[in-house]
Design goal:
- The complex is a heterodimer of chains A (171) and B (212).
- Chain A has six helices and eight strands.
- Chain A is of the alpha/beta class and 171 residues long.
- In chain A, the strands form two sheets. In chain A, strands 1, 2, 3, 4, 7 and 8 form a six-stranded mixed beta sheet that branches. A two-stranded antiparallel ribbon of chain A has the order 5-6.
- The N and C termini of chain B lie far apart (61 Å).
- Chain B has 212 residues and is of the alpha/beta class.
- Chain B has two domains: 160 residues, Rossmann fold (3-Layer(aba) Sandwich); 27 residues, no CATH class.
- Chain B is globular.
- A six-stranded parallel beta sheet of chain B has the order 2-1-3-4-5-6, with helices on both faces.
- Classes of the chains: A alpha/beta (171), B alpha/beta (212).
- The interface between A and B is large, with 55 and 55 residues.
């Protein structure tokens, strides 16, 4: 399954043609993670906050090809994407494993991913550097088998997404 | 070097490990501290208070490899509405993994914020195994490092510090298994139930993978 998860609306006809599911987080109601660990110790695999996030993280887990589209702020995903990723911890277990020589959470039924992370905005070189470090860490915790980071300006974002979707279509 | 504002940016602030780390810092710090929680507070009121301190210590857990959304939200407001006087910013960050280095990216985000917005960056303490260390005999290790952190903030001789449980990773994994199994047991949830591969109501095939 191919998935685009974006923090803003994308007006790209090629997405529909390429049978890609696209989730626009900006249209969803997603509260902050409250750090209760309920999804690990009370209702394993399910978040106790029953808002739209509960429909999104299973789709992330199922997808083997994902394009994450997020504005970048202080070297982090900006709030919309960051909030969703924090709410995605039900796809992991509380238990820890050794992975790539480090301790990480055991994944539940999460497909290994070919991931592209498209950070957009007015991003300074040092911010790009921090963002790339973040994605390298995410790779261990979000089950990225392979990943690539790409940057775009806000104006150039849709073109960048279109290029990536066309590449998927060519595969 | 003087009054320090301690800002707990944990999403579960009132019952967070960050609160306990902050309390240890307060005990060790030779000057006055005042403790604030970010959760459900008016950020502008917090920023107004911030202007009255020489130092601010951000205390928070690692969330999805970075700073928590609650803190990111606050920093965005802080960028737009700086305090009348900018304090020196120090960081105390903890993660549930044994490697304190897994906190590095969150520290870099804070450093980047400070550089961009004209705050002098102070000391850092990265805590590994931070979810459980306070309930173990290794509590003394972390308390000692927090004391060091407090000393460095007080003197302005800033340091980069780290601490974790001094045990092999294999032992840590086994100990964390027991820790979490006991956590689940409090809610009547077994270790096997906690280890389910199912996410929401997805159907699992006989191989444990999602059915189509």
């Amino acid at each position: 399954m191919k998935l685009i998860i974006s923090d803003r609306h994308l007006d790209i006809p090629e997405i529909k043609q390429a049978s890609v599911e696209c989730i626009d987080l900006s249209k969803l109601k997603i509260a902050n993670c409250i750090g209760c660990f309920g999804c690990w110790v009370k209702t394993p695999g399910k978040c106790v906050i029953r808002d739209d996030a509960t429909k999104v993280y299973p789709r992330i887990a199922e997808s083997d090809t994902v394009l994450y589209v997020s504005k970048v702020k202080f070297g982090s995903y900006d709030l919309v994407m960051k909030t969703m990723l924090e709410r995605s911890i039900p796809i992991q277990q509380a238990f820890i494993r050794l992975f790539n020589g480090e301790t990480h959470h055991v994944q539940r039924n999460v497909a290994p991913k070919q991931a592209i992370v498209l950070g957009y905005g007015d991003i300074s070189p040092e911010e790009r550097d921090v963002f790339c470090q973040l994605i390298a860490r995410n790779a261990n915790n979000m089950n990225f088998a392979h990943y690539r980071v790409r940057f775009a300006t806000e104006q150039g974002l849709e073109e960048a997404v279109r290029e990536e979707v066309l590449k998927w279509g060519a595969q | 070097m003087g009054r320090t504002m301690i800002l707990n940016a944990s999403p579960r602030a009132p019952r967070s490990n960050s609160k306990q780390y902050a309390a240890i810092f307060s005990e060790c710090y030779p000057f006055e501290t005042e403790y604030f929680e970010l959760l459900h507070k008016d950020p502008l009121a917090l920023i107004e208070s911030m202007g009255e301190f020489s130092d601010v210590l951000f205390v928070f857990p690692l969330y999805a490899d970075g700073i928590p959304a609650t803190l990111l939200q606050f920093l965005k407001v802080l960028e737009e509405h700086p305090p009348k006087r900018k304090p020196v910013a120090s960081v105390l960050v903890n993660c549930g993994f044994i490697e304190p280095g897994q906190n590095d990216v969150a520290v870099e985000m804070m450093r980047l914020f400070c550089r961009r917005n004209g705050y002098r960056f102070g000391s850092v303490l990265r805590i590994g195994s931070g979810e459980a260390i306070l309930t173990t005999p290794f509590r003394a290790f972390v308390a000692r490092k927090i004391k060091k952190l407090a000393g460095s903030v007080a003197t302005g001789k800033h340091q980069n510090l780290k601490v974790t449980m001094p045990i092999p990773k294999g032992m840590y994994i086994k100990a964390s298994e027991t820790y979490w199994a006991n956590y689940g047991a409090k809610y009547g949830v077994t270790k096997e139930q906690m280890a389910t591969m199912q996410i929401e109501d997805s159907k699992l095939g006989s191989d444990g993978k999602a059915g189509s």
